[in-house]
Specification:
With about 375 residues, the chain is an alpha+beta fold. It has 11 helices and 13 strands. The strands form 3 sheets. Strands 2, 5, 6, 9, 10, 11, 12 and 13 form an 8-stranded antiparallel beta sheet that branches. It has a 3-stranded mixed beta sheet with strand order 1-8-7.
């Protein structure tokens, strides 16, 4: 009887020890060195095969050392490592390169190269019209100048008679706006532009300085290639103002009565374009530069003025200025002006300024007419 009691006690104690050991092995934490179950867990399992609880637990606890070195897995789980390290498709990492190119041509008609027609764009032969040369001026001696005055005028291209100054047509020699013609003379015909600090042609400007007046800040445009996925960044320059905003031109001229020829001569000395620029929300005029008119006469013979009534009977720009087929108003003169002030500085009312300009025109005309005796 005693043997049976001891046997039952021993069996119970052995069973209790086995239960404790199995419970400890079930919740035991895997050490970082136990990487073999994790490697088995990352390999794809065969169909119908089941994995043990200990292997799953070991793979989960060893994720810090194994899964980071594993290739990224697919899926939409927010806890997957692939969703953190893989960049979005918008960033072009597959190509690995971005092409950057610089477009130095100022967009807007200022620095655009003329497109040459590969065929004759006219029915008639106009090859001889390119060989025109301006006529030489008649020589005027200083001792023969009986009467002389300086006059400053402004030409407004918005007037109907002056609409040819802002004609945006295209030809083999480029844009037909008069401002573009001035830029063409500076770039292609070695015409020197002068600083607008004064109208006496004292400070010459380089071509780059003139082009910097029309060019604004740089702008970057990204153009992706749909085939290769390579993104090309084109860095270009935007114009400060539109070419249509340059519709006012200032002219400095001298009126001379030559007693030897017994006639009144009016010679243009310089031309300056005036741009409308927005400063602090206000549109203000700005004189860009001055060009010596005798220097650009050869260039003006290459460009023809737009004629709205008959395209065949067009004149050159040099003929337009010499024949004075334009409308203008006087803004300043040397007649009764000891302070060398413009009319806007002396007369505030714009209507009275126009009337004073007409009065100056009449004074010059009356001087010539009063010299004759009938």
């Amino acid at each position: 009887m005693k043997k049976m009691v001891f046997k039952l006690i021993f069996t119970g104690m052995a069973a209790f020890v086995l239960i404790q050991v199995s419970a400890q092995s079930k919740y035991k934490t895997a050490t970082p060195k136990q990487t073999t179950p994790a490697k088995q867990a990352t390999t794809p399992a065969k169909k119908g095969a089941s994995t043990s609880t200990n292997a799953n637990a070991g793979a989960a606890m060893a994720s810090d050392t194994v899964i980071k070195n594993a290739p990224p897995t697919s899926g939409s789980s927010k806890y997957r490592q692939a969703n953190i390290d893989t960049p979005s498709p918008s960033t072009n990492v597959a190509s690995g390169s971005v092409n950057i190119s610089y477009d130095t041509i100022i967009q807007g008609g200022f620095d655009v190269k003329p497109e040459i027609s590969l065929r004759n764009n006219y029915v008639v032969d106009r090859s001889q019209s390119k060989d025109r040369k301006p006529l030489e001026y008649e020589y005027l001696r200083d001792d023969d100048a009986l009467f002389s005055h300086f006059v400053w005028r402004e030409i407004d291209g918005r007037e109907k008679i002056n609409q040819s100054f802002v004609y945006p047509g295209k030809d083999d020699n480029g844009d037909q706006r008069f401002f573009s013609i001035l830029l063409s003379a500076i770039k292609n015909d070695s015409v020197v532009a002068f600083d607008a600090v004064n109208d006496r042609f004292t400070i010459p400007l380089t071509v780059n300085q003139v082009m910097a007046m029309t060019g604004g800040a740089y702008d970057t445009v990204e153009v992706p290639d749909p085939v290769t996925g390579v993104t090309e960044r084109i860095i270009t320059k935007k114009p400060k103002f539109s070419p249509d905003s340059v519709y006012t031109f200032r002219i400095k001229e001298q009126v001379v009565f030559d007693k030897k020829a017994s006639r009144l001569f009016t010679r243009i000395i310089g031309i300056a374009p005036i741009a409308k620029q927005v400063v602090a929300g206000k549109s203000l005029p700005r004189t860009l530069f001055w060009v010596y008119y005798p220097d650009i006469r050869a260039t003006l013979t290459k460009f023809e003025v737009y004629n709205p009534r008959n395209f065949a009977s067009r004149m050159t720009w040099e003929e337009l200025f010499e024949s004075r087929i334009f409308s203008s108003y006087i803004i300043k003169s040397s007649i009764n002006n000891p302070g060398d002030k413009s009319l806007s500085a002396m007369i505030k009312d714009p209507l009275f300024r126009l009337l004073e300009g007409e009065n100056i025109k009449q004074k010059i005309l009356n001087y010539e007419q009063d010299l004759w005796a009938y």
